[in-house]
Amino acid sequence: MVIGEQDDFVKTDEQLVSHHSEKTKKNLITRLNRIEGQIRGIKGLIEKDTYCDDVITQISATQAALNSVAKILLEGHMKSCVVERIQQGDMDVLDEVLTTFQKLMKK
Prior knowledge:
By secondary structure, the chain is mainly α. It contains three helices and two strands. It has helices at 22-47, 52-87, 92-105, and strands spanning 8-12, 15-19. Strand 1 and strand 2 form a beta hairpin. The protein starts with 7 loop residues before the first strand and ends with a helix.
């Protein structure tokens, strides 16, 4: 995420949705497309009976790439969605953030 670039969230009928800038969205989609290719590559390695350690190395790289996507999303979420909800008096967002951190730290 670029400093100064803001993503916003919108509340529609009690459902929160995020509106990322086009630049952020393009970055995330590019990363996810690359990850999708990595997953297909891992499948191919399994199909070709590739040495286990080599497959595990590729799985590790894919997990790292997914973690990078999560970091970008978390940064944008904290800087825009969470801040805005706190400014609106919605302190429940803090419990949501703590739950999200717990999920990410399990990995």
